[in-house]
Amino acid sequence: MKIYMDLHTHTAACDHGYSTLKENIDAAKEAGLACLGLSEHGPAAPGSPRPVFFRNYKCIPREYGSLRLLCGVEANIMDYDGKLDMEQDLLERMDYVIASMHISCVKPGTCRENTRASIRAMENPCVRILGHPDDSRFPLDYEELVKAAGREGVALELNNSSLNPQNVRQNGRENIRTLLRNCQKYGVPIVMGTDSHICYTVGKFEESLKLLDEMEFPEELVLNADLENIRKIVLAKTF
Ligand SMILES: [Zn+2]
Ligand SMILES: [Zn+2]
Q1: pLDDT at 239
Q2: CATH number of the domain that 40 lies in?
Q3: From the CA of 228, how far away is ligand 1's center (Å)?
């Protein structure tokens, strides 16, 4: 499978990222990507940039030879109503929005509460990707989640970092398997993201690809496999 995009990457703009945007861009080109997404952590995450960082995206060129850059946010889900940590008018100015649950921003709830939080977040028209729904610290009802993603036209993320046993997220592999099985059952697309915090992992999807292979997951449900699919991710207002 040819991979055209990596839409989940961070930079040294957050306090636990180690590469510059230029280093990520160079790495994305080297990895043969056609599209790189900058998805810096939303303002509520400790050590993340302030809102002005996102408001100033207009100064960043979006074309680098064969590579297109998208500037977005990994917004934080703040409560079980799916409230995000960014004003709606600023969300609308992003090229795309990932919404994720992080322990630093929301207390893990019951399976029902976490599922509700995720579904409510996906109902926000700016949210195009649900980030790493694969952490046993935030148990989810995968069947409900996948059906809602299908309804809202939101892509569920296969997070390559969650397959790394050193990741703090728990039971990533097992949860991703359940996620993928449900996506197959309901024909709901996924998007792979590396969740890179350093340039050396940008565009590197080995673990995810191995798992997709193992599960015989259909390529047509993997958004990264066709560059045209960025139309499904990018907010109409910025495209
Ligand atoms: Zn995250
Ligand atoms: Zn991330």
Answers
A1: 67
A2: 3.20.20.140
A3: 25
